[in-house]
UniProtKB/TrEMBL annotation:
It holds the Pfam family OCD_Mu_crystall. SUPFAM superfamilies: NAD(P)-binding Rossmann-fold domains. This is Ornithine cyclodeaminase family protein. One of its GO terms (cellular component) is cytoplasm. InterPro entries: NAD(P)-bd_dom_sf (IPR036291), ODC_Mu_crystall (IPR003462), ODC_N (IPR023401). Coiled coil: none annotated.
Length: 320
């Protein structure tokens, strides 16, 4: 049994490897070659315990993760991933679930940019500069030569933490702009990425600031959470999701469906787009939306890739 902490995982896998693993997971999802129950969530106010099991033909994994968004002196996410053999059921590895959650969620955004964005995009905005904001920035720079990243956070002083960490990952020049408002952050951006757990929209209800852009929602994962404004749904003709469960899990989909702002005919699984290499027409007056709530299949595929690469590179601690 191998134990892999954050340091070991970073030695074993790159962000590009992780984005490739997410794309592989979408192909498994499209082929329905997996078993995955709806995630179990137990909440105490804003604090949440999430249990996410999944089985594929190649691996079995269960992720246990806690989300405590108001933590001040500790990380907001804590967790572990247990990887089992699909042949014998034995535990192969225990992995740092917080880091896997971070890097694989960043890779989900990176995959969306890879498949949905225009090829010449160079400027992105990130709303929410916590851990997930960092990984979204890294992933974006992995799939495109980003030149400018506009950063907004409710607590302005915390933007510096992302900037310091970002420089450890990306070795080419990227201009990182600290902004004092969401409008300032998004006005010149070609891609907008939201990474908050807000219960009210964090983007302005102004179509002129949203049109012609790729909007990626990563943060909201419960029905009472929303990052997207009403106006966004009138400006988009493509809404992509990472899994069907996202429709019921996120307020950014459930609320507009409940209010008939959109219909389910407007919503498409990105796996179908990726597997069939569909073409997207980018219109200057329309936005493209991708909404992710994540799924255990991602953790299972990514954890298995990490384990295989760790064995190849001889990293990690053998427990048994």
């Amino acid at each position: 049994m191998l134990y892999l902490n954050e340091y070991d995982i970073r030695r074993a896998i790159t962000m590009e490897d992780t984005i490739d693993a997410i794309d592989a997971a979408y192909k498994i999802y499209d082929a329905k070659q997996f078993q995955m129950p709806t995630r179990m969530q137990i909440a105490n106010n804003e604090n949440t315990l999430i249990v996410m099991p999944c089985m594929t033909t190649s691996a079995i994994a269960t992720k246990l993760v806690t989300s405590f968004p108001n933590n001040k002196k500790h990380p907001t996410l804590h967790g572990s991933v247990i990887l089992n053999s699909s042949k014998t059921g034995e535990i192969l590895a225990i992995l740092d679930g917080s880091f896997i959650t971070g890097i694989r969620t960043g890779a989900i955004g990176g995959s969306a940019i890879r498949h949905l964005a225009k090829s010449n995009i160079r400027k992105i905005a990130i709303i929410g500069t916590g851990v997930q904001g960092l990984y979204q920035a890294i992933a974006a720079c992995t799939v495109h030569p980003i030149t400018d990243i506009f950063l907004y956070n409710r607590t302005y002083e915390k933007i510096d933490t992302l900037i310091d960490s970002f420089k450890e990952w990306i070795d080419y020049p990227v201009a990182l702009h600290k902004t004092e408002s969401v409008v300032e952050a998004i006005q010149d951006a070609e891609i907008i990425i939201t990474t908050t757990t807000s219960h009210t929209p964090v983007l302005p209800n102004d179509a002129s600031l949203l049109q012609g852009k790729l909007i990626i929602g990563i943060g909201s994962f419960q029905p009472n959470m929303r990052e997207f404004p009403r106006e966004l749904y009138d400006t988009t003709d493509h809404i992509f999701i990472d899994s069907h469960d996202a429709i019921n899990e996120s307020g950014d989909l459930k609320t507009p469906l409940d209010h008939n702002w959109i219909s389910k005919n407007n919503i498409h699984e990105i796996s179908t787009h990726i597997v069939h290499s569909s073409t997207i027409t980018h219109k200057p007056d329309k936005s493209i939306v991708f909404k992710s709530t994540g799924m255990a299949l991602f953790d299972t595929v990514v954890a298995n890739v990490i384990y295989q690469k760790a064995i190849e590179k001889g990293v990690g601690i053998q427990l048994i």
